[in-house]
């Protein structure tokens, strides 16, 4: 095994991150909502020895964020549930981490805790959680319990530039902080040896090793304990996507890994400094926050260059593709060089977004991984252990109630 292997995950989003990906020759639009398609994607990623897959999800139909809904039918306008996809592929995979997106808005942390703990059991310690805030009026309208003002693309851009957000945005992230805290406490509410399972004494659990969490906050009041035993990892891996100091600080308060979006030319150095500053403001203790830059990738194939493939997709969609993350087009060797360069600047790992899921995930597995292995920068096999240990976190997180 490489002495200090790169950590690489992929972000799966339907047919791919380009809106015309479903129209690419090798895509499988008729199968997007079937189990075979998702099983094939995740097993392809596992064949490449990747650390994890994240599975995108929102409470809105896919489309550009913070733009008015339209009636366009030339892109995939439907989703299936990310957590249930992860549950489906868990039994047919063995080593790769499974990180579905689950919103903290309009959901109850007790349900989220139970669902993700169950995924950790069914995957034998490979579960994670990508925390998402649902901040649009359209999403709130699905539930009818509250109103959320819309933030336009222009207002979002100004907030990102100035670092000043409307009060309701701060409220959404404060709520998310509390939601993650409740979930984490519920995961700890059973000590690791709380299950006795002694038939002779008729004792399944040691009731003294179950704990009320007694969380009282602005948004939630949860007594606990959970009805699900502590997950195999103790604490499944918590991740978040962040684009600004406000969200870097949110990630520093709640997450193990933060996905960031540096520009291609600037690299991750400045963002790494901002994440460090956010961690200091949040007075983060314990393990440091791991920082994984995102890249949307269109890799060269035998038939076309990545740039040609992107240009063809842009022509199909009728406009130039843009993304919050930097866009890479080129060879696997060039991408390998870029990842190593960014690691030298301090990145802890990377999350790659395949422009076309079928084509670019296959290229990551069959071209990028061997290119990194030739450089001695990527593993030749999976090590034993959980997703936490694969990412270099403590193998089993300590239980706050046991230590008390």
From TrEMBL:
Keywords in alphabetical order: Flavoprotein, FMN, Monooxygenase, Oxidoreductase
Domain Luciferase-like: 32-345
Flavoprotein listed as a keyword: yes
InterPro entries in the record: Diverse_substr_monoxygenases, Luciferase-like_dom, Luciferase-like_sf, NTA_MOA
Family matches, as SUPFAM superfamilies: Bacterial luciferase-like
Regions annotated as coiled coil: none
Family statement drawn from the similarity comment of this UniProt entry: Belongs to the NtaA/SnaA/DszA monooxygenase family.
PANTHER family to which the protein is assigned, alphabetical: ALKANESULFONATE MONOOXYGENASE-RELATED, C2H2 FINGER DOMAIN TRANSCRIPTION FACTOR (EUROFUNG)-RELATED
The protein, known as: LLM class flavin-dependent oxidoreductase
Organism annotation: Nocardia aurea
């Amino acid at each position: 095994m490489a002495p200090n292997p790169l950590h690489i995950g992929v972000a799966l989003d339907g047919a791919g991150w380009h809106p015309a990906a479903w129209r690419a020759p090798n895509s499988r639009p008729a199968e997007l909502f079937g189990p075979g398609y998702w099983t094939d994607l995740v097993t392809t990623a596992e064949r490449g020895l990747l650390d994890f897959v994240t599975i995108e999800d929102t409470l809105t139909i896919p489309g550009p964020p913070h733009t008015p809904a339209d009636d366009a039918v030339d892109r995939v306008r439907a989703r299936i549930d990310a957590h249930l996809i992860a549950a489906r592929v868990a039994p047919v995979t063995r080593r790769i981490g499974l990180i579905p997106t689950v919103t903290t808005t309009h959901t109850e942390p007790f349900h989220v805790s139970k669902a993700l703990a169950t995924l950790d059991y069914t995957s034998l310690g490979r579960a994670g959680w990508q925390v998402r805030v649902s901040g649009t009026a359209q999403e709130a309208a699905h539930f009818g319990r509250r109103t959320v003002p819309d933030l336009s693309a222009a207002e979002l851009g100004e907030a990102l530039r100035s670092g000043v957000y409307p009060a309701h945005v701060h409220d959404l992230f404060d709520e998310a902080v509390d939601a993650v805290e409740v979930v984490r406490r519920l995961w700890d509410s059973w000590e690791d040896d709380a299950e006795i399972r002694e038939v002779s004494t008729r004792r399944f659990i040691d009731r003294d090793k179950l704990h009320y969490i007694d969380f009282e906050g602005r948004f939630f009041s949860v007594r606990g304990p959970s009805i699900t035993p502590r997950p195999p990892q103790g604490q499944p891996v918590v991740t978040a996507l962040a684009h600004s100091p406000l969200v870097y600080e949110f990630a520093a308060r709640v997450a193990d890994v933060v996905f960031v979006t540096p520009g291609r030319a600037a690299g991750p150095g400045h963002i790494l400094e901002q994440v460090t500053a956010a961690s200091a403001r949040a007075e983060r203790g314990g393990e440091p926050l791991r920082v994984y830059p995102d890249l949307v990738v269109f890799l060269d194939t035998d038939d076309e260059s990545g740039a040609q493939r992107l240009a063809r997709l842009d022509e199909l969609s009728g406009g130039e593709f843009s993304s919050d993350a930097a866009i890479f087009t080129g060879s696997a060797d060039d991408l390998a060089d870029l990842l190593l360069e960014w690691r030298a600047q301090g990145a802890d790992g990377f999350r790659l977004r395949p422009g076309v899921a079928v084509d670019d995930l296959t290229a990551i597995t069959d071209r990028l991984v061997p290119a990194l292995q030739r450089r001695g920068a990527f593993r030749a096999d999976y090590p034993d252990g959980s997703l936490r240990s694969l990412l270099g976190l403590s193998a089993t997180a300590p239980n706050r109630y046991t230590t008390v």
